[in-house]
């Protein structure tokens, strides 16, 4: 909300100075009003949830304030290596391919010749009279 207000104020100042067209001010105003509407909706939802809670605890008509806040713990993204390890561990197709590779290595049988590309050239050579 504060960011949208600051952008709107800046757009108005730039329009007054003649450096920015009126459409930029209009865009900033629309963004500000959108944020204000979102704030109103969030406050109304909070009030509805408080009313539902007061009905559940049977204290309708009594004013109360919520004292405990939800704990917040910042999410620490995993390192690239850890992320790749988790991704490969979760992929069933990758795990199946690894299992097939291990089974082939343990069996001691070389891979079939059909998997190796082969070029066959047949020609008839000779002289014609």
Low-pLDDT stretches = none
Please give the number of β-strands. Answer: 0
Structural Rg: 35 Å
**Mean pLDDT over the full residue set:** 84
Derived from helix and strand composition plus strand pairing, the structural class reads mainly alpha
**What distance lies between the first and last C-alpha atoms, to the nearest angstrom?**
95 Å
What would the principal axes of the Cα set say about the shape? Answer: elongated
Largest sheet: none
Number of helices: 4
Strand content: under 5%
Order of helices and strands: HHHH
- Tell me roughly what share of residues is in helical segments: 55-70%
Description of the molecule:
The protein is mostly helical. Helix content is 60%, strand content 0%. The protein has helices at residues 2-17, 22-56, 80-90, 92-107. The model has no long low-confidence stretch (mean pLDDT 84).
Features of this protein?
mainly alpha; 129 residues
Record the SSE blueprint:
Elements: H1 2-17, H2 22-56, H3 80-90, H4 92-107
Brief synopsis:
With 129 residues, the chain is an all-alpha fold. The chain is 60% helix and 0% strand.
């Amino acid at each position: 909300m504060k960011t949208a207000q600051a952008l709107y104020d800046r757009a108005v100042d730039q329009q007054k100075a003649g450096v920015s067209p009126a459409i930029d001010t209009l865009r900033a105003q629309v963004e500000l009003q959108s944020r204000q509407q979102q704030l109103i909706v969030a406050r109304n939802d909070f009030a509805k949830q408080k009313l539902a809670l007061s009905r559940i605890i049977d204290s309708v008509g009594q004013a109360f304030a919520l004292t405990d806040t939800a704990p917040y713990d910042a999410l620490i993204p995993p390192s690239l290596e850890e992320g790749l390890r988790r991704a490969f561990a979760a992929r069933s197709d990758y795990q199946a391919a690894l299992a097939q590779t291990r089974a082939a290595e343990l069996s001691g049988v070389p891979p079939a010749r059909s998997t190796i590309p082969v070029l066959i050239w047949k020609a008839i050579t000779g002289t014609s009279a």
